[in-house]
Specification:
The complex is a heterodimer. Chain A is of the alpha/beta class. Chain A is built from 10 helices and 10 strands. Chain A has a single domain (about 1-250), classed as P-loop containing nucleotide triphosphate hydrolases (Rossmann fold), CATH 3.40.50.300. In chain B, the strands form 2 sheets. A two-stranded antiparallel ribbon of chain B has the order 1-2. In chain B, strands 3-4 form a two-stranded antiparallel sheet. Chain B starts with a helix and ends in an 11-residue tail after the last helix. The chains are: A alpha/beta, B mainly alpha. At the A-B interface, helix 2, helix 3, helix 4 and helix 6 of A face helix 19, helix 20, helix 21 and helix 22 of B.
Chain lengths: ~260, ~675
């Protein structure tokens, strides 16, 4: 059974159909890509998945549950983690703090009275889990530096770590390579591959960097002008003439 | 029917002045993105200058009004833009709001000091024209209109048409509209947005001056508070126009004026409703409009799409310190507290004891600001009101119901927390300036209506609140009561620190950093903020109860008036919103800075060190000026300027320690991260 299943998702903005009858699925432990030219509707679709927008028609289910009426923060508790295209970090907190917040949120046991009687500090158990993720992502050296001192690339890794702390079954990544150079992109791809292998986390990757998509994902969905024009195994989709035309123009060749 | 016509005729002139305020207000909000609460201070400045020139120096009325409205006011606007607001374009809207609140506190006091207006100067107010009270009857014998009122309507028509023409038909107006959309884009298109912004500030300040001079005759004396309430009416009208539509703001202002007159005509005279509701109508409208209007609910703060290009500087991060320094600072504070304890419990007289008692209770109220502003990053302007709720509840339960006053105090805190939680429900989706405004509306409404109810205040004479009796221990004497207060203060401080280090504090910190990212890891923003709001209201209520016991009664006007609430915020923001220390310093500064430093220590020092002349007590407005101006630094140092300086100097000491150690060849210690 699919972990994430979107069917017939349609979203209109004042006469413009941003998404038209889009269907997409992600299986457990699967690496899936969603590509398309600028303005294809990728971000709109993403926001529908996250509950920031509500689709006009269609349904989105996650692990068999209908997501339509579930607010954003509860989707996170169901097991959907995400990162942001325009990086969203917590100012004045260290990477370790970022991860601790997410861990506490996952446990959902942070009542006010516990803080008041002095039980609010991180437990050894929580610290151990945070250390494990810091180690997995190679963030140990930066763990206690102020977040403002980190580069964009490290910031993206912190975002991934923060999302991982909630033990997501599905990780949604919105153009994680934007603003990164070649080396940082490769490092990021390696991290994602490892996360998928170690934790069995399914990943839905929205991405411009074709090389990264090709190297990482097993299946690809292609959006163009709000409609799904192709989907299937990565190699097949990139061989498809229609995709080439939509994405790269007639004479394009995929690197 | 006669009543309706009479109300319209009475309401339109007042509405016209509201409209001038609303127009000027929308002007700065649109072109500079600044929600200018200091507008009232600007109106006051013009009215005070006008009055001084005309009455004290016997200038011609026309000349003094031209100087006040066309020279002083625009210059003040230019000055504010030149020294402050043009550097705050990309600062968060909350920082800009704090800046204007600081100005609102500081500017009128600077004017008072500069013009040597004493606290009890009697003001027979003057308007724009001589003999303003002359009555005309253009609409028939039953409907009198004064000359002042006709002038108010006339000025609005001229100013409104002028402003409309400026925006519609001039190149400058077009540039202003472009700057409104996006300052950076306009700059890229070759518009000197700095110049346009400066012009908008000068123009809107002239509107403030115009409104100030026009409305002055309606007040008994030219007092800054009157003008502050005038501005609230203008803001309510502007809010009806969504803060951006000038025609709708104008209609809202006129409607507000007429509605006020209608209320006066139809409500039974001398009832609480008539006395309270009419003056508080603008506050009620402001509050309800913000809470109920869908146009406000859906709105986010104005944000320039390119504003993120130059983000505000990061705050100083937590630093690692060596053991010596930690021990050193702790020893320092230990010595300070030991000295204070010695002074309070053995040395000082009743005058100082009362101040210390008040300061400790105020410190508890200030810790509520540490929670809501420091931790949650929200600007609440009604923390003083929560203090009042706690104080009133304590008084009523202890005096009316004969309950133990300690129990009554905790129940008072619970009532304040409940009110805070309920109030938070409709407000917390708003955030930013809207939350600040709505809480201000609530504070003003509470003062003018709720605090007047005898079942709330206990009527006159004010009921006497007893000191607690705990088993065999009687806390009736000042010194023993201070000991009890210290226990309560320490408990609250421990609670605040624990909450900050615990889950709630971490969640609020995450929300302050990025609401969308916090929600993405499963944090419920609404719940976290309601918790913070209720907790902070409860703490403020506890402090209110303590203050009522310390003073023996509830002094609403002195301690909890809305303007007081603004000053609370300003002083805590200046001295540090993030730490318990900051709140303590703010409370002692609030109560002791004036009598200790300004009236005694500084004059003593000056008279003993310098050889020339004698200096008496320093003037009363000084603390307001100092702390008001201190709040201007909030945009750069949201942790508080004192906190910032303290960290900076501690870091310098730390570096010196490190250098000495490395030069001696001792093992490397953790180095302070910059």
């Amino acid at each position: 059974m699919s972990l994430l299943l979107a069917r017939g998702v349609t979203k209109r903005f004042a006469g413009i159909t941003a998404l038209d009858d889009v269907a997409l699925s992600v299986d457990e432990r699967e690496l899936v890509g969603l590509i398309g030219p600028n303005g294809a509707g990728k971000t709109t679709f993403f926001n529908c998945l996250l509950g920031l927008l509500r689709p006009d028609r269609g349904s989105i289910t996650f692990a068999g549950r209908d997501l339509t009426r579930i607010p954003t923060h509860q989707r996170a508790r169901l097991g959907i983690g995400r990162t942001f295209q325009r990086i969203e970090l917590f100012a004045e907190m260290t990477p370790r703090d970022h991860l601790l917040v997410a861990e506490r949120s996952r446990r959902g046991n942070g009542r006010l009275w516990k803080d008041i009687v002095g039980l609010g500090r991180p437990s050894p158990d929580e610290r151990a889990r945070v250390d494990a993720i810091l180690h997995l992502l190679g963030l140990e050296a930066d763990a206690d530096r102020p977040i403002e001192a980190l580069s964009l690339g490290r910031g993206r890794v912190v975002e991934i770590g923060r999302a991982l702390m909630t033990e997501p079954k599905l990780l949604l990544l919105d153009e994680p390579s934007s603003g990164l150079d070649q080396r940082e992109t490769e490092h990021l791809a390696a991290v994602l591959r490892q996360v998928n292998a170690d934790h069995g986390t399914a990943i839905l990757l929205v991405e411009h960097d074709i090389a990264m998509v090709r190297g990482l994902v097993e299946r690809v969905f292609v959006l163009d002008f709000g409609t799904l024009i192709a989907s299937g195994a990565t190699a097949d989709v990139f061989a498809d003439a229609g995709v080439r035309q939509a994405y790269l123009g007639d004479s394009g060749s995929l690197a | 029917m006669d009543d309706v016509i009479r109300s319209v005729i009475q309401g339109v002139p007042v509405g016209s002045v509201y409209a001038l305020v609303a127009l000027g207000f929308v002007l700065t909000y649109k072109t500079a993105g600044v929600f200018n609460l200091a507008f009232g201070a600007q109106a006051y400045t013009a009215a005070a200058v006008h009055y001084e020139l005309h009455v004290r120096y016997h200038w011609n009325l026309a000349l003094s009004s031209v100087v006040a409205i066309l020279i002083v006011s625009p210059s003040l606007g230019l000055l504010l833009d030149l020294t402050l607001f043009r550097y705050l374009r990309s600062a968060p809207s909350v920082s800009r709001l704090v800046t204007t609140i600081g100005l609102l506190v500081a500017v009128p006091n600077i004017v008072r000091l500069a013009l040597r207006i004493g606290s009890k100067s009697t003001f027979g107010a003057v308007g724009l024209v001589p003999d303003g009270k002359t009555v005309y009857r253009p609409f028939g014998a039953d409907y009198p209109v004064t000359r002042d009122e006709l002038v108010q309507i006339g000025v609005l028509i001229v100013a409104g048409l002028g402003l409309g023409a400026l925006f519609r038909w001039t190149a400058l107006g077009l540039k202003m509209r472009a700057v409104v959309e996006s300052t950076r884009m306009a700059e890229l298109a070759g518009i000197n947005s700095t110049g346009v912004g400066a012009f908008a500030w000068a123009l809107s300040s002239a509107f403030a001056g115009l409104a100030g001079v026009l409305i002055a005759p309606q007040f008994a004396n030219v007092d800054a508070l009157n003008f502050f309430e005038l501005v609230i009416a203008g803001i309510a009208a502007a809010a009806i126009g969504g803060l951006t539509s000038m025609p709708r703001a104008l209609a809202g202002a006129l409607g507000l004026g007429v509605a006020g007159a209608l209320l006066a005509a139809y409500l039974p005279t001398n009832s609480i409703l008539a006395r309270g509701l009419k003056p508080s109508l603008p506050f009620v409208v402001l509050f309800l409009w913000i809470v109920l209007s869908p146009s406000v609910r859906g709105r986010r703060d104005i944000a320039d799409p390119l504003a993120g290009v130059s983000p505000p500087p990061p705050a100083v991060s937590a630093d690692e310190r060596s053991r010596e320094l930690t021990i050193g600072t702790r020893a320092f504070w230990g010595a300070v507290f030991a000295f204070l304890a010695w002074a309070v419990f053995t040395a000082v007289n009743d005058f100082w004891l009362l101040l210390v008692m008040q300061a400790i209770a105020i410190a508890v109220i200030f810790l509520s600001i540490t929670v809501i502003t420091g931790m949650a990053g929200q600007l609440s302007l009604c923390q003083a009101t929560f203090g009042a709720i706690g104080a009133f509840t304590t008084t009523q339960l202890a005096v009316g119901q004969g309950m133990s006053v300690l129990v009554a105090m905790f129940l008072g805190a619970a009532v304040a927390a409940a009110v805070g939680g309920v109030l938070a429900l409709p407000l917390l989706r708003l955030g930013g300036i809207w939350l600040a405004l709505a809480t201000l509306g609530f504070a003003l409404f509470f003062t003018s209506v709720v605090a007047e109810l005898s079942w709330v205040s206990g009527g006159t004479p004010k009921p006497k609140v007893p000191r607690p009796l705990l088993g065999p221990i009687d806390f009736a004497s000042d010194r023993s009561f201070i000991a009890l207060e210290i226990v309560v203060l320490v408990l609250v401080a421990v609670l605040v620190v624990r909450v900050r280090r615990g889950t709630t504090g971490r969640f609020l910190g995450a929300l302050r950093g990025s609401e969308i990212a916090a929600a993405a890891v499963g944090i419920n923003p609404v719940r976290a903020r309601i918790t913070a709001f209720a907790l902070s209201a409860g703490i403020a209520g506890l402090g209110g109860g303590l203050l009522a016991m310390a003073e023996g009664r509830t002094n609403h006007t002195v301690n909890y008036a809305p303007f007081q609430g603004l000053f609370f915020l300003v002083i805590v923001v200046t001295l540090g919103t993030r730490t318990v220390e900051g709140a303590l310093q703010a409370a002692f500064g609030y109560k002791l800075f004036q009598p200790l430093i300004l009236e005694r220590a500084l004059p003593w020092l000056v008279n003993h060190i310098q050889p020339f002349g004698h200096v008496g007590a320093l003037p009363k407005p000084l603390p307001f000026i100092l702390f008001g101006l201190g709040a201007l630094t909030f945009a750069r140092h949201p942790e508080g300027i004192l906190e910032f300086q303290k960290r900076k100097s501690l870091n310098a000491i730390q570096r010196r320690i490190d250098r000495r150690r490395t030069s001696k060849g001792a093992p490397e210690q953790p180095i302070v991260s910059a």
